[in-house]
From TrEMBL, chains A, B:
This is DJ-1/PfpI domain-containing protein. Transmembrane segments: none annotated. It comes from Emiliania huxleyi (strain CCMP1516). Residues 3-184 form the DJ-1/PfpI domain. It comes from the Eukaryota. Pfam families: DJ-1_PfpI. Gene3D superfamilies: 3.40.50.880.
Length: 224, 224
């Protein structure tokens, strides 16, 4: 069974992680959840206008406690077939967290393929994983992601893309647009990595109609 | 902030719960997670053909430990604006669990509106919540759900439906088809319960293109 590592952190976006995970598990992956520290980490959603402050957003809207079985450092003792990095409110703090980024870079080295959803690409960029690569991200958070770190400036950001697959150096690095785009990327990933039709069969099992054209991006106009 | 109760249990389907939850949280709900016993409960995916036995399916594929802050009985001390019941492998055991079903029926009484995703409708049916109502469910599990309990025979099951909204007795009871159909139902629910356009705004925020016609069911042909 191919091994998927989900990188979880405080304030990860729920559907960023569990949408792709549903489809990738149906496609045949097993999953291990790792976080900066093992134990409970809370997923949630990006703050709504109802929330007054950044702090309140993170506090109020991070509300699904998930148990990570491994710390990120502990996860370094294994090889992974696929590493998945969600986005979410929590990326704001982590994009400047050097120990986190250094460990993430090592985990990406230890993974045959790497994928991110939404603002998860800001973390991959800051960790140097996207140096010189093509990538995309959440459309509403475009300005923040593309300016979130010095290394983000070296990425070839693609504004009109549901997802982007880059194979520079022979290693697949796939990045998706906002939240739900991760579902479509996961269907494509499963078929690319596990065999033709595997992703589509998983989507059918989940009664999901995937978008199959990575250039068909209904939300590209949100980029500012 | 309107209050959503997520009914979690061992072997709940990941996207059944976290797809609608993403959209409903973005729409303005707060969430409380309750399970038969509070503490850790594992979500996963329905077994794949790769799994040898029913036991192995449940063991191997239930792999995301989530912390429930309340037991279902504890959740009875509050009123809820919306109760959400996911489906998944775990419904097989619970559909014959009388204490669980009795508590679920009381929780539904204490909730202004009730919704289920996928085989979650088998639990609502067995608890008597769908007596004489129209409902739908997962297409691949159709035969099992519609025959899963004596009370399921009193439900007016609708095979061609992405979701079904029934308002018998003045109370909204919405049931969706398989896994990903819960996303579309959630968009509709948010607009119906919180105000016109609220669900669509949440979907846009999540870069999700919802299906808006409940009768447009691409998976109806899977019903046997």
């Amino acid at each position: 069974m191919p091994k998927l590592l989900l990188v979880a952190f405080e304030g990860f976006e729920l559907l960023d992680a569990f949408g792709p995970l549903e489809l990738l598990l149906l496609a045949g992956y097993s999953v291990t959840i790792a976080a900066p520290t093992n134990g409970v980490v809370r997923g949630g959603v990006v703050g709504s206008e109802a929330c007054k402050s950044e702090a309140a957003k993170l506090e109020v809207r991070s509300c699904v406690p998930v148990v990570a079985s491994h710390s990120l450092v502990e996860a370094l003792s294994q090889k992974w077939d696929l590493l998945l990095v969600p986005g979410g409110q929590g990326t704001r703090a982590l994009v400047g967290d050097e120990p986190f980024l250094a460990t993430l870079a090592l985990l990406c080295d230890a993974s045959a393929a790497v994928a991110s959803v939404c603002t998860g690409s800001a973390l991959l960029a800051a960790a140097g994983v996207l140096d010189g690569r093509k990538a995309t991200t959440n459309k509403r958070g475009w300005a923040w992601v593309t300016e979130s770190s010095k290394r983000a400036a070296t990425v070839e950001w693609t504004p009109r893309a549901r997802w982007v697959a880059d194979r520079t150096g022979g290693k697949l690095c796939a990045t998706s647009s906002g939240v739900a785009a991760g579902l479509d990327m996961a269907v494509w990933l499963a078929s690319d990595l596990l065999g033709a039709g595997v992703g589509e069969a998983a989507a059918k099992r989940a009664e999901y109609v995937p978008s199959t054209d990575p250039a068909d991006d209904p939300f590209a106009a949100l980029v500012k």
